[in-house]
């Protein structure tokens, strides 16, 4: 399953791009956007359980608390926070008539913001192998910007 997640993510992103282009041209397919956002949310959630590809050097052990925080805990929090924010974006696009999605957006915004600040602090302190966690930031930061636009824009 872990090997399929990157491919599923690309399919859902391409579907979301097509749905967005259709919306800009005036021929809307809301089901297409809804399915792609729901699929992305599920993919992000499942990505939290994917192991990092880290090869420790010969004779070196991973066991420092900073390494545990930077390589395991924070990436999982970021993946799940990105998933929650993506589902909040989905519910905001559906316009169901209530503001229940705002809670999801705030939870995602706060979670991604705090986890990013902690990870940047760990990067400054020189935690090893922290560059292996950057793929989650390529998903979390754009999601954070979209959430901030929906909430404050």
Q: Would you summarize the structure shown here?
A:
With 153 residues, this protein is mainly α.
How far apart lie the N and C ends? Answer: 37 Å
- Which bin fits the share of residues in helices? over 70%
Enumerate how many helices there are, as a single number: 5
How many separate domains?
Answer: 1
Question: Can you give a write-up of this model?
Answer:
- The chain is mainly alpha-helical and 153 residues long.
- It has one domain (5-54, 62-152).
- The chain contains five helices and no strands.
- The chain has helices spanning 5-25, 30-47, 65-94, 101-124, 134-152.
- α1 packs antiparallel against α2 and α2 (30-47) runs antiparallel to α3 (65-94).
- The termini are far apart.
Structure keywords:
transmembrane; 153 residues; mainly alpha; membrane; transmembrane helix; elongated
Secondary-structure blueprint:
Layout: H1 5-25, H2 30-47, H3 65-94, H4 101-124, H5 134-152
Helix pairs in contact: 1-2, 2-3, 3-4, 3-5, 4-5
């Amino acid at each position: 399953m872990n090997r399929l997640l990157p491919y599923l993510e690309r399919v859902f992103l391409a579907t979301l791009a097509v749905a967005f282009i259709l919306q800009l041209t005036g021929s809307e397919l809301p089901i297409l956007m809804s399915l792609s956002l729901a699929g992305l949310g599920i993919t992000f959630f499942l990505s939290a359980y994917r192991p990092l590809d880290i090869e420790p050097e010969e004779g070196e052990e991973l066991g420092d608390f900073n390494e545990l925080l930077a390589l395991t805990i924070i990436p999982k929090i970021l993946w799940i926070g990105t998933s929650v924010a993506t589902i909040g974006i989905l519910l905001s696009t559906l316009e169901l008539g209530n503001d229940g999605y705002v809670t999801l957006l705030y939870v995602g915004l706060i979670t991604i913001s705090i986890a990013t600040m902690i990870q940047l602090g760990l990067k400054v302190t020189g935690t090893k192998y922290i560059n292996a966690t950057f793929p989650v930031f390529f998903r979390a930061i754009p999601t954070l910007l979209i959430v901030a636009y929906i909430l404050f824009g």
